[in-house]
Structure formats: C-alpha cells, structure tokens
Write a structure and sequence with these properties.
- This protein is an alpha+beta fold.
- Helix content is 30%, strand content 24%.
- The strands form 2 sheets. A 6-stranded mixed beta sheet has the order 1-9-8-3-4-5, with no helix packed on it.
- Strand 4 and strand 5 (67-68) form a beta hairpin.
- Helix 1 runs antiparallel to helix 2.
- The protein starts with a helix and ends in a 5-residue tail after the last helix.
C-alpha cells in the first residue's frame, strides 16, 4: 500500500513540475504578459518577480500589503512593469512587461504567498528575438503567455502516469497471485478450505 502512495505522490510531483515552466517568444518593442496564477479562492499577500540571472539586486516587480513597491525594482524595469490585474482577482499575479528589449531575454521567476500562507512559484523563459516567426503565427509563439508548451507536458505527464499505473497493476496482480498460491498450498497440506 505504501508503494501505491509513493507512486501517487511521484505522479503529482512530475505533472505539476512539467506544467510550471513556459517559454515565451516576442519581438523587441512588444509588450508581453508574464503569467503567474495562484489559487482562485485565496488572496495574494506577496508577489515577487525576479530574474535570477541578473547579477545585481532588485526585483522585476514587487507587491506587498496591497500595493507595488517600485523602489525595490531593478533599474532596468522601472516604469516598464505593471500588474495585469491591479486587484489581483482570482489569484492572478501576472505582470505586463512593456517595450521589451534583447536585454529582457532570460528566466523570470514569480513567487506568490497567499493569505493561507501557501507559496507558489512559476518560471517563464522569455526570448526576445528579431524573428518574424514569434508574433503568434505558425511557430506557436504569442505575447499572451507565449509558446505554450502544454502539449509536450501533457504527453510526458500522461506517459508517466501510464507507466506508473501499469507498475501498480502488476504489483497488485502479483500480490494476489502469491496470496492465492498460499491458499492453494494450505488446502493441499491441511485439506481445509480457506476463505
């Protein structure tokens, strides 16, 4: 039974991890929404947007006590980042980065803390490219959440679930077979049927 619990935990971990990172491709000069969603039924108490690859201190965006703090912001983001929904309705802590440049390419991390002290993190890879193939056409990129990598994530998640489900079924079948074999052996040795 503990094996089944372990596999369920592993499945949930893999599926949630596979859906946590997105890739967005945009052209210079565009505005881009960096999506970050918390639980719909909880209010956001803290929202931090960072770029771990930046060497200096400062946030991409910082929100606490029901207001943003621009003085904590990295200088390159001053005046260019705002909440997509200033009221953070339904746990939406997404931000809009305006007038992107090549220097904005990098990994963005959103961290939310809710009134229930729940912590959620999201990662977004932003690629600013001068290609005409990124503005929502045949390559799948767009400026509202980007190149949604959902299909490969779902395929990986479902494949993992399928393999783990198969392992659990085989384990249960073998366990039942061993149990039936023990009953059969008991019947042969003692002559008493076991129910």
């Amino acid at each position: 039974m503990s094996l089944v619990v372990f596999f369920c935990f592993l499945i949930l971990s893999l599926v949630s991890a596979s859906e946590d990172q997105r890739e967005i491709k945009v052209n210079p000069g565009q505005d881009v929404s960096l999506l970050c969603q918390g639980p719909r039924n909880a209010s956001v108490k803290l929202s931090e947007w960072t770029r771990p690859d930046l060497k200096s201190d400062g946030y991409v965006f910082f929100y606490r006590n029901e207001r943003p703090y621009e003085n904590f912001q990295h200088e390159s983001f001053h005046g260019r980042v705002e909440l997509r929904d200033p009221e953070l309705k339904d746990g939406d802590a997404s931000v809009v980065l305006k007038n992107v440049t090549f220097n904005d390419t990098g990994t963005y991390e959103c961290r939310i803390v809710t009134n229930a002290r729940q912590e959620i993190k999201h990662l977004i890879d932003l690629k600013v490219t001068d290609s005409d193939h990124t503005a929502g056409n045949k390559d799948g990129g767009n400026k509202e959440g980007g190149n949604k990598e959902g299909f490969p994530s779902i395929v990986v998640g479902l494949s993992v679930i399928g393999v783990l489900l198969f392992v659990v079924v085989v384990y249960i079948c073998r366990r039942n077979r061993v149990h039936q074999s023990m009953i059969h052996t008991h019947l042969i040795i003692t002559g008493d049927p076991v129910s």
